[in-house]
């Protein structure tokens, strides 16, 4: 048995093929490259039962991952995140079979750990010593920390507006951190210049082929956790779109292996109304997107004005009869609070956007009540403390505890209220 069944890379735009045993960035035509596997051979040698007893992380699918030698695996235990039933939120939305895959409890606090684990492992295997990347925060945090574990030097550039905690994650990893007074697209230009000048490995979104492979394990896990019967709809908060492209790729590979028996899910790309280039392109029937001017949203991970893989996202939506939806910041923040109150889950604003989109699509009739609907919560709400408004009274020691009611704050024990209600 081979550890990996990787065969080569190919360009989804012009079809050109590349070997996978040396560093490759974009295709010479400028498109991202995708990883191919020897699925015919793998189909003969690999069955779902083989997964029993394997490590409870994404490396349990190593045959469908690009790392050829197990000793190059760089792991912090990422993957196999919980798949949870969301009964009360589902009831509130009229979607009784609502599920959440919760990426909030993964190392580094967002699903970016998946892309970083596989991307950094493959970089190590290819002999990379120094990498650079622009980021909206979470990817930089994950790549900096995994690079540290791999002994690879990292240079990370993020907007000054990126979530503060992601700065700390990069800084504590010992990586070289630069902040830019601008957007991720500005950071990208600056990284491109440094890559050229210093011969660094460009780990920008989709400029190396392996991040997709890490993120696709979300799709494999969903299939395994649902016993190879996939949901009707998957909603995904879309920035660069890597996760959605990855999930689609995973499900197609599993279908080709004969592991998935039912119809592939309709994939929904969810964006913030303040940065919705994919949604606009979808509504206009285009196959690629246009730069979104002056983008702005509290859901920082999906503030990507122009994605290199936009055409792959739009193709994945079209192929699965999916759609693209934008939600307002106010709407997603309200949904975030509701999910916490009804389900006890503190989801990130990006995940909250996907819940808000599910609610909308149910209202519009695009989602039917009997369908199984899965929302990806791509990170932990704990990484974005500023999205929650905290109003709490500050008491002096010995004061009576207060409790908020509709008329305002009252102290327990006053106004004739019973003290043993709780
Ligand atoms: C990066 C990010 C996204 C968007 O991921 P893509 O795969 O780039 O579309 C969504 N949510 C969070 C929390 C992120 O950090
Ligand atoms: Zn090409």
At the third CATH level, what is the topology name of the domain at 83-109 and 215-387?
Answer: Rossmann fold
Instruction: Outline the low-pLDDT stretches.
Output: none
Taking the alpha carbons of the first and last residues, their distance comes to 60 Å
- How much is the radius of gyration in Å? 22 Å
What is the residue-averaged pLDDT?
Answer: 95
Given the C-alpha coordinates, what overall shape results? globular
The bound ligands are: pyridoxal-5'-phosphate, zinc ion
Number of helices: 13
* Helicity level: 25-40%
CATH architecture of the domain at 83-109 and 215-387: 3-Layer(aba) Sandwich
Largest sheet: 6 strands, mixed
Number of strands: 15
| Class based on secondary structure composition and strand pairing | alpha/beta
Strand coverage percent: 15-25%
CATH class of the domain at 83-109 and 215-387: Alpha Beta
Lateral arrangement of strands in the main beta sheet: 4-5-13-10-11-12
Order of helices and strands: EEEHEHEHEHEHEHEHHEHEHHEHHEEE
Question: What are the key terms here?
Answer:
422 residues; alpha/beta; Rossmann fold; six-stranded mixed β-sheet; four-stranded parallel β-sheet; 13 helices; 15 strands; 34% helix; globular; binds pyridoxal-5'-phosphate; binds zinc ion
């Amino acid at each position: 048995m081979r550890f990996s069944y990787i065969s080569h890379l190919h360009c989804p735009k012009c079809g050109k093929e590349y070997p996978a045993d040396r560093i490759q960035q974009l295709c010479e035509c400028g498109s991202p490259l995708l990883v191919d596997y020897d699925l015919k051979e793998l189909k003969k040698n690999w069955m779902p039962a083989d997964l029993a007893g394997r490590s409870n992380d994404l490396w349990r699918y190593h045959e469908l991952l690009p790392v050829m030698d197990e000793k190059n695996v760089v792991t912090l235990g990422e993957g196999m995140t919980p798949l949870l039933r969301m009964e009360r939120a589902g009831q509130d939305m009229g979607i009784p079979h609502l599920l959440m895959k919760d990426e909030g409890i993964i190392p580094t606090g967002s699903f970016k750990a998946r892309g970083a684990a596989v991307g950094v492992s493959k970089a190590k295997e290819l002999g990379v010593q120094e990498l650079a990347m622009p980021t909206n925060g979470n990817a930089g945090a994950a790549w900096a920390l995994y690079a540290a574990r791999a002994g690879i030097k990292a240079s990370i550039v993020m907007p000054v507006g990126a979530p503060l905690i992601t700065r700390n994650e990069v800084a504590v990893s010992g990586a070289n951190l630069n902040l830019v007074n601008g957007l991720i697209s500005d950071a990208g230009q600056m990284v491109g210049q440094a890559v050229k000048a210093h011969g660094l490995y460009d780990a920008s979104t989709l400029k190396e082929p392996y991040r997709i492979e890490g993120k696709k394990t979300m799709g494999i896990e969903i299939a395994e956790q649902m016993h190879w019967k996939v949901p009707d709809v998957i909603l995904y908060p879309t920035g660069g779109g890597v996760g959605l492209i990855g999930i689609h790729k995973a499900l197609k590979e599993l279908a080709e292996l004969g592991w998935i028996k039912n119809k592939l899910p309709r994939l929904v790309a969810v964006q913030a109304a303040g940065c919705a280039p994919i949604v606009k392109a979808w509504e206009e029937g285009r196959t690629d997107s246009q730069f979104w001017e002056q983008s702005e949203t509290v859901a920082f991970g999906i503030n990507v004005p122009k994605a290199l893989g936009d055409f792959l996202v739009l193709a994945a939506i079209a192929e699965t009869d999916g759609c693209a939806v934008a939600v307002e910041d106010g709407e997603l923040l309200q949904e975030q609070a509701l999910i916490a109150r009804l389900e006890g889950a503190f989801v990130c604003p990006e995940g909250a956007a996907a819940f808000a989109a599910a609610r909308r699509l149910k209202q519009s009739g695009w989602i039917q009540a009997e369908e199984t609907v899965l929302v990806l919560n791509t990170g932990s709400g704990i990484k974005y403390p500023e999205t929650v408004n905290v109003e709490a009274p500050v008491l002096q020691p010995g004061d009576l505890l207060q409790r908020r009611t509709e008329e305002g704050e009252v102290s327990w024990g006053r106004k004739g209220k019973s003290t043993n209600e709780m």
